[in-house]
């Protein structure tokens, strides 16, 4: 959820004209893949694609103060990654 929120904030800044090459992704996708036991280039590539697709979806969600609207997207991402695991 934290990475989704971070990217939602970055996309929000970009949408109002703040474009800065200094923005950084948290790049949690690689850490998550490792924690889920995914190894090998193909496996990590597939997990990264799932992760990236869900990060893009956060653009469509309204930003709220409590981030609860990100919970279903985070859960969906987790379940998709879990399927890749086995």
Please explain how this structure is put together.
The protein is an all-alpha fold and 86 residues long. It has one domain. The chain has helices at 2-15, 28-35, 41-57, 71-85.
Can you summarize this structure?
This protein has 4 helices and no strands. The protein has 86 residues and is mainly α.
Number of helical segments? 4
Q: What is the overall silhouette?
A: globular
Helix/strand order, N-terminal first: HHHH
Q: Biggest sheet: strands, sense, closure?
A: none
Q: Which ranges are low-confidence, i.e. pLDDT below 50, for 5 or more consecutive residues?
A: none
Distance linking N and C termini: 23 Å
The domain count comes to 1
What is the β-strand count?
0
In round numbers, the mean pLDDT is 85
Radius of gyration, in angstroms, nearest whole number: 14 Å
Short descriptors:
86 residues
What's the structural blueprint in terms of helices and strands?
Layout: H1 2-15, H2 28-35, H3 41-57, H4 71-85
Helix pairs in contact: 3-4
């Amino acid at each position: 959820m934290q990475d989704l929120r971070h990217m939602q904030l970055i996309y929000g800044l970009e949408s109002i004209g703040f474009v800065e090459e200094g923005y950084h992704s948290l790049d949690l996708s690689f850490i998550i893949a490792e924690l889920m036991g995914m190894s090998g280039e193909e496996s990590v590539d597939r997990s990264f694609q799932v992760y990236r697709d869900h990060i893009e979806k956060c653009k469509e969600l309204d930003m709220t103060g409590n981030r609860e609207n990100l919970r279903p997207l985070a859960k969906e991402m987790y379940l998709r990654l879990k399927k890749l695991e086995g």
